[in-house]
Amino acid sequence: MPKKRNLSTGRQVKKNIDLDPDQIFLDSSNLPSFDVDMFEGRIEKPIAKAAILVFGVFIMLMLIVFVGRSYFLQVISGEYFFTRSASNSLKRIPVPSPRGMIYDRNGVELAWSERSGRAYMPESGLAHLIGYVGFPSQDQISISTTTDPTDVVGKDGVEKKYNDWLRGKDGSKIIEVNAHGEIQSEYLYEPGSAGGNITLSVDSRITKKFYEYIKNLAGEYNFKGGAGVIMDLRTGEIIAMTSYPEYEPAVLSKGDDRDAISKYINDKNMPFLNRVVSGTYTPGSIVKPIFAMAALKEGVITPEKKIQSKGYIAIPNPFFPDQQSIFKDWRVQGWVDMRRALSVSSDVYFYEIGGGFEGQKGLGIDKLEEYSKMFGLGTTTGIALDKEGEGNIPSPAWKSKNFKGDQWRIGDTYHSSIGQYGFLVTPLQMVRAVGAIATDGKLITPRVFHGEGNIGVQYSSIDIPKEIFNVVKEGMRKGVTDADGTARALNVPEVEVAAKTGTAELGVSKALVNSWGVGFFPYDNPKYSFALVMEKGPRENTVGANLAIRKLIEWMAVNTPEYFK
After folding, report:
1. Domain containing 297: what range?
2. One domain, residues 212 and 234
3. With bands split at pLDDT 50, 70 and 90, how would you rate the model's confidence at 555?
4. Going by C-beta distance under 8 Å and a sequence separation of 6 or more, which residues neighbour residue 41?
5. Residue 281 forms beta bridges with which residues?
6. Nearest to 474 by CA among 379, 333, 338
7. Which of 14, 248, 363, 495 is in the most buried spot, having the most CB atoms within 10 Å?
8. Beta-ladder partners of 203
9. Are 457 and 405 part of one and the same domain?
10. Judging by DSSP bridges, how do beta strands 133-134 and 117-120 pair with one another?
11. Residues 229, 115 share a domain
12. Is 367 domain-assigned?
């Protein structure tokens, strides 16, 4: 309601006036000249001065705080933060993931990880197969883009061969440390993944006992070392593999017992050598079954034909024609056929079928080499382990290379026929070759992992008639059952064994010998082949490798009878 001024007093007085609505509100529809987009017709009210004052004060305070903090950081504390930035550094710290476990075929732990490091079953006889861990060598670092000098990696055996699988993936964290190495802050943590587990084919119970018997035999009869292996002929899995002497994996992995490590390094008996896989040895008579089959297959002799052993054969000396070269048997054998020759291990018999003598035709060195290779000698077996030895089969080419062009002579063939001269084999090769005899020609690839999917046994076939295999197997069985058979120590009631022994003479003086025992069991339905060598024992020893094999079989019959079922 508008007010009216009183002219006499100068004061305003109220006056009642009636107003219509259209005098108060503008009707935009009746004002078409208003441009709404240009804000015509809008009533505006200015911002209050108090609001502007409050906002200005807030901005000023923020500016003061910013300037003050900057002054504090750059002027007052500048030297402190400069020193810290110069001294501190960011570091990536690996967080090791647990290394995978290694088990035997029955789930027994052979190697595992503890907070203090890698741990192993003590005195297992499996050191060379399992291996050990340590810091990487320069070669390991140079060939791997993921290996740091501080990593723990496999150094031998399965630990080395399958290091990438066992180690998994390490985690990491980023930390800030000062000049004193003190952690200032931790910025990031990246979790890793644990390594994969491995289950080996070996039975740790049998392997440990095998090692014990080899060690005791070596100590009692002055052998420098020994190696034994057993293979399942149905799968190719290695049931036992042991090498004496061995090292203690835990000692090498920890690395703090310098005296023990130095002793290992300087030991002339080479405890780091895996004798089963890498050791090469003169085989002696254990190759005779192979050459017996070669002679039958090539028609050199029949199983029934007898050859007389008077204890030696003599031929003209190539250097002194008026003299004779004598090739001795280890004893007078009399008249022997093939089965008997295998049983008593007649050298004269194999001289004659190998090199020929008088009216008896011989195979010749080329056929000896051919059949040796046919049974896997002179080459690797295909086992999934490193450093496998190839051995050697003597030949004219080999002699010419190693003896300055010296020609091959008949005496070299005679010596090769009984596994001497330049012959070298590994125990792993021999367990495979004997397995081929037991299975009528399946040359099996040995395996060290248990239950490798459904791939089945892997083998190549040897083209020799089954009747020939039967003759040789019968001769090997007679070696066990005959009263004077060389393998009669293995005539045990627990299981029927077929075997062949070997006594390989070493060096020019022949004062030392390698004692061998190879064979398979059960005789009628072969499931396992075995090979054992006792290294560098005195020639006068009357006890050899078969004693350790016999003790193991007797122990297995009581403690692991499932292998005889």
Report:
1. 204-564
2. yes
3. very high
4. 26, 28, 31, 34
5. 425
6. 338
7. 363
8. none
9. yes
10. unpaired
11. no
12. yes
**Same structural domain for residues 195 and 209?**
no
Q: What contacts 529, CB < 8 A, 6 or more positions away? A: 230, 231, 233, 431, 432, 434, 435, 438, 518, 519, 520
Q: Which of 312, 302, 359, 315 lies closest to 333, judged by CA?
A: 312
- For 1-14, write each residue's pLDDT tens digit: 444 444 444 455 55
Question: To 5 degrees, how large is the angle CA 94–CA 95–CA 100?
Answer: 120
Tell me, yes or no, whether 262 and 276 share the same domain.
yes
- For tokens 């000692």, the residue is 251
Quick one: pLDDT at residue 42? 59
- Locate 505 and state its tokens: 């003479």
Q: Kindly report the backbone phi and psi dihedral angles of residue 502, in degrees, each rounded to the nearest multiple of 5, phi listed first.
A: -155, 140
CB atoms within 10 A of CB 225: 23
State the amino acid at position 223 in one-letter form: F
Model pTM score? 0.81
Which tokens is 554 given?
């007797």
What tens digit of pLDDT does each residue of 453-487 get?
566 789 999 999 999 999 999 999 999 999 999 99
Torsion of CA 450, 455, 457, 459, to 10 degrees: -130
What does the pLDDT look like over 305-353, one tens digit per residue?
Answer: 999 999 999 998 888 888 899 999 999 999 999 999 999 999 999 999 9
Task: Give all strands (DSSP E) within 310-384, no chain letters.
Answer: 312-316, 324-328, 334-336
Joined tokens for residue 274: 């895996």
Between CA 201 and CA 234 the distance in angstroms is 13
Q: Could you tell me which of 540, 536, 556 has the C-alpha nearest to residue 226? A: 536
Show Cβ contacts of residue 111 under 8 Å, excluding neighbours closer than 6 positions: 101, 102, 118, 119, 120, 121, 130, 159, 249
**How many Å apart are CA 503 and CA 285, to the nearest integer?**
7
Q: Residue 63: left (phi > 0), alpha (psi -120 to 50), or beta? A: alpha
> In Å, how far from its chain's centre is CA 186?
38
